[in-house]
Amino acid sequence: MTITRTIPGIRAAKRRNGSDPLVMVTAYDAPSARVATEAEVDLILVGDSLAMVVLGYEDTLQVTIDDMAYHTAAVARAGPTAVVVGDMPWMSFHVSAEATVTNAAKLIRAGASCIKMEGGSKRIPMIEAIVAAEVPVMAHIGLTPQSANVMGGFKIQGREAEAVGQMIEEARLLEEAGCFALVIEGVPDLAGRLVTEAIDIPTIGIGAGPETDGQVLVYHDIIGLENRFKPKFVRRYDKAFESQTAALAAYAADVRSGAFPAENETYAASDELTEALGLYGSGPGAAPDDRAN
Ligand code: KIV
Known about the structure:
The protein has twelve helices and eight strands. It is an alpha/beta fold. It has a single domain, classed as Alpha-Beta Barrel (TIM Barrel), CATH 3.20.20. Strands 1-2-3-4-5-6-7-8 form an eight-stranded parallel β-barrel, surrounded by five helices. It starts with 6 loop residues before the first helix and ends in a 17-residue tail after the last helix. The structure holds 3-methyl-2-oxobutanoic acid. Residues 26, 45, 47-49, 87, 140, 183, 185, 206, 216, 218 line the site of 3-methyl-2-oxobutanoic acid.
């Protein structure tokens, strides 16, 4: 069963009910959103991973709601057919319900049709406030990078039975609070499966095994533009770092050798302009017959 790219369409996309798996990819700018649109993904996540992936930070804690709105707007300007998910960054939903709703509105006004928020049941008051303001919410549990300091790093979660039980309970509470989908990150495959079985909203996994209702990966990981670190769950489909380096090196070589730009890459001055500037022949004032070309 194909997926309708609307919030109700995504909410209904449960594999056990015959849905195709959901395909989500991150994008942070207009060109990558255009590529994702051509590739017909279901959801584009303007993730706060942009802090690490494109802004060069060590973690995701450095981006603000205004950074996220700026990148969400760039993605939206590409006119994607996918549902655009705006990621709420750290400290944009931790202070008060009022500030949370105001911040969610910034992402919606920038072009997202829903927001994603990390964390379990302790986020429920904020989730309820956003849902009451008519903003659809995607939850995010398991390895939540905004909690890296608390977790002692980017560590796989749910390795013990008790933790998996808690995760299932959290997922149920998030569904009850009105979330329309749930990202589950960095957990053993069994935890991904059990959480998926426990709830009626779709799960979208990243490093959560094959049995979630969909998958999400970071754009730069998929195309191999990020080539420094490859987590186990990443599959690279291209070698963009290598191919782009080769392209830039070829350009540099052509500039240095004079092979670029060629005649067909040059705006030739008209005869009138050349003549008016007195540049025919060997110098200013030379007769047209002396022209060198
Ligand atoms: O910010 C992000 O890219 C994410 C995904 C990894 C789910 O939250």
